[in-house]
Write a structure and sequence with these properties.
- The complex is a heterodimer of chains A (361) and B (290).
- Chain A is built from 16 helices and two strands.
- By secondary structure, chain A is mostly helical.
- Chain A has a domain of 237 residues.
- Chain A has a two-stranded antiparallel ribbon with strand order 1-2.
- The longest helix of chain A has 27 residues.
- Chain B contains eleven helices and two strands.
- In chain B, strands 1-2 form a two-stranded antiparallel sheet.
- In chain B, helix 1 packs antiparallel against helix 8 and helix 3 runs antiparallel to helix 8.
- Chain B is globular and about 60 Å long.
- Classes of the chains: A mainly alpha (361), B mainly alpha (290).
- At the A-B interface, helix 5, helix 11 and helix 13 of A face helix 4, helix 9 and helix 11 of B.
């Protein structure tokens, strides 16, 4: 409940921004930050909650963008219909890739590599077929109207992307509290133990992959509507994969607010560097990469792992081996006394903390 | 439809490229075999080495082959300290974290190169760039032949080094049994860093052999990273023999595939092999069953 209230608050605050702020720069920043949030949040579903690190999440992004583009330009479909079809097509692709990889038991580095390889395959395929405009890419003809999903000002786009960010947040919060989410986190922390307790690891990872992919596809479709252009390296290149992953990791994997924190921080940071250094090629990515290294070395739980956001607990010393997953989740669920009390009162509901889940299932 | 001699020369070209691939993959498989981490920064490190060779030639006029004694030790030092200072501190007990850190390193290196040298593709011209040698019915560029021979020699040296020297034995001991090796008085952290250093010096050597017949730009490593992973996965993670066979095989497949399907689709062939091997036989051709 607390999460739902917070999400509602977040949504209403952001939704009001375009009503009071009229500076194009800030509105644009707001839109891009929300877009980055959607990327990170969808990566977070599979990477943060499921523990399956994808290095080629642009695969689903590109799939969404190209579905949106091809159906609209080559077949003349309405963009709003296309958006739903993009969601569907990338979810299907997620089912396919996830199904293949998880059925054959790929995890850890292998899963990261196979997603990267799939993204490369799709990049090269889209580079060599005429349907996708080959190397030239697809250009969306400009015709501003609500029905065409081309808004004359940024606010329309902000509300559109905000809607999807809220969807992503609701899914994440559902994952945090539902049985499926608890299974997913259990599989992430110890797949064998989870399986021994009756969880089907393949199934939960598969569902997570499809959820994550479908949101990524929506982000791709949105990108095309805003920038009206897509080409193979924009769609399937490493840039999108990296910003999705860095945002989630910097903010804090496997948390509800971490990816938002990370995505907004990165977006503001890159805006600031753009102002300081101008349009130097690569400077943004240097910062992203350095941040990724620094976070992994010093703060493997991301910003959300900072004490300020997460009260210290005695269990800190209980896991000297440093198994981040278990302690992080244990803490996240229990850090807040009110949640803990609420759980105690409700008793029967599936608690977010892994420790209690084990007992239940 | 194709003349047999064209196919023959294509195979030959593939073998020469495959030899360099082998060298690159050996570095990767060494790091994997011992540290059990996938060095995602392998391609970016190769790019750094290629720039090193390029600037040694352009600014100081040092021939790429003579640059070997400079580039190889520098790459070793880079690798040693990369492991000792950054990667070593990032694992926190999870292998995935190291994967992310090496991804971070590769992003930083690649984009620093983009910042400093912009995205131009550069190559060098030396007197013998365009010289060709007849091998059987086919003609082959001299730099390619030299790179092939050089890569094979270095690969062989590396394998002998691993078998015969004390450090090689220590590395193999750590790879097999970390705790036991530590009890025997082996400094595991030092061996890790040495391994990373040796892995990157392979790239230094590969860069020296590669550049006369190749080019360098900030994203050149990307092409190699997946190819090297394919080879390592195909040959079996951590297997030296596998990397050698896999390297030559992939070189030939790429070259012949490019001949029949065109260059870009030939690349797809490699990725499809990669995906299939990962799915069907993740232990590779020579790897032990996990």
């Amino acid at each position: 409940m607390k999460d739902l209230k917070a999400i509602a608050l977040f949504a209403s605050v952001v939704a009001c921004v375009p009503l009071f702020v009229h500076s194009g720069v800030i509105l644009n920043l707001c839109m891009m930050a929300l877009f980055a949030t959607l990327l990170s949040q969808s990566w977070n579903i599979l990477g943060g909650f499921g523990g399956q690190f994808s290095f080629g999440h642009a695969l689903f992004f590109g799939m969404g963008a190209y579905t949106q583009g091809v159906l609209q330009i080559q077949f003349g479909l309405n963009p709003w219909v296309c958006l739903l079809l993009s969601l569907g097509s990338s979810a299907l692709l997620g089912l396919l890739v996830g199904g293949l990889s998880f059925r054959y038991g790929l995890k850890g580095s292998y899963f990261a590599l196979i997603t990267l390889a799939f993204a490369e395959v799709f990049r090269i395929l889209s580079l060599s077929t005429n349907l996708t405009g080959a190397g030239v890419g697809l250009m969306l003809p400009l015709s501003e109207s609500m029905g065409n999903m081309q808004f004359s000002s940024r606010e329309g786009f902000i509300w559109l992307i905000l809607f999807w960010v809220v969807c992503a947040l609701l899914i994440t919060s559902w994952l945090k509290h539902s049985r499926l989410g608890a299974y997913l986190q259990a599989v992430r922390d110890n797949e064998d133990a989870a399986q021994a307790l009756g969880v089907d690891p393949f199934q939960v990872k598969w569902i997570a992959c499809a959820l994550s992919a479908s949101l990524m596809g929506v982000a791709g479709a949105f990108y095309l509507q805003v920038f009206q252009y897509i080409d193979p390296s924009l769609a399937f290149g490493p840039h999108t994969s990296i910003s999705a992953l860095v945002g989630a990791i910097v903010g804090g994997m496997g948390t509800l607010w971490g990816p938002i924190l990370g995505a907004f921080a990165l977006e503001i940071l890159s805006e600031v560097t753009r102002n300081m250094f101008g349009q130097l090629p690569g400077i943004n990515m240097v910062i992203y990469g350095s941040l990724l290294i620094l976070i992994m070395v010093f703060l493997p739980r991301g910003f959300a792992g900072i004490r300020l956001f997460n009260r210290p607990k005695a269990t800190d010393t209980a896991h000297p081996s440093g198994s981040i997953g278990v302690t992080a989740m244990g803490k996240e669920g229990e850090a807040d006394p009110s949640t803990r009390d609420a759980l105690r009162r409700q008793g029967s509901e599936t608690p977010p903390s892994l420790n209690s889940t084990k007992v239940q299932s | 439809m194709f003349d047999l001699s064209i196919v023959f020369s294509s195979v030959l070209n593939g073998l020469t490229m495959g030899a360099v691939y082998t060298l690159i993959a050996l570095g990767l498989t060494l790091i994997y075999g011992v540290l059990h981490i996938i060095n995602f920064a392998h391609g970016a490190s190769l790019m750094v080495a290629l720039y090193g060779v390029y600037f040694l030639k352009v600014k100081l006029g040092i021939d790429p082959y003579l640059a070997l004694p400079i580039v190889v030790p520098s790459m070793f030092v880079l690798g040693y300290f990369l492991q000792k200072i950054i990667i070593n501190h990032a694992s926190h007990g999870k292998d995935e974290n190291i994967l992310l850190v090496t991804l971070g390193v590769s992003i930083v290196l690649e984009n620093l190169a983009l910042l400093s040298f912009n995205s131009d593709t550069r190559n060098i011209e030396i007197g013998y760039t365009l010289t060709t040698v007849a091998v059987g019915p086919a003609m082959i560029a001299l730099p390619r032949l030299l790179s092939c021979l050089g890569a094979l020699v270095v690969s062989l040296m590396l394998i002998i080094f691993m078998k015969k020297t004390d450090l090689g034995k220590a590395i193999r001991a750590v790879a097999k049994e970390k705790a036991g090796a530590r009890l025997m008085g082996i400094d595991v952290e030092h061996v890790y860093a040495m391994c990373f250093g040796i892995g990157l010096s392979c790239l230094g050597a590969a860069a020296c052999f590669l550049l006369p017949a190749f080019y360098v730009n900030p994203t050149v490593g990307n092409g190699f990273v997946l190819v090297a992973f394919t080879i390592v996965v195909l040959g079996g993670m951590g297997s030296f023999l596998g990397a050698c066979v896999g390297g030559l095989l992939i070189g030939v497949i790429e070259s012949v595939g490019g001949l029949f399907l065109g260059d870009s689709l030939g690349q797809v062939g490699i990725f499809v092999i990669f995906i299939l091997v990962l799915l069907v036989r993740p232990q590779g051709l020579f790897g032990a069953k996990a």
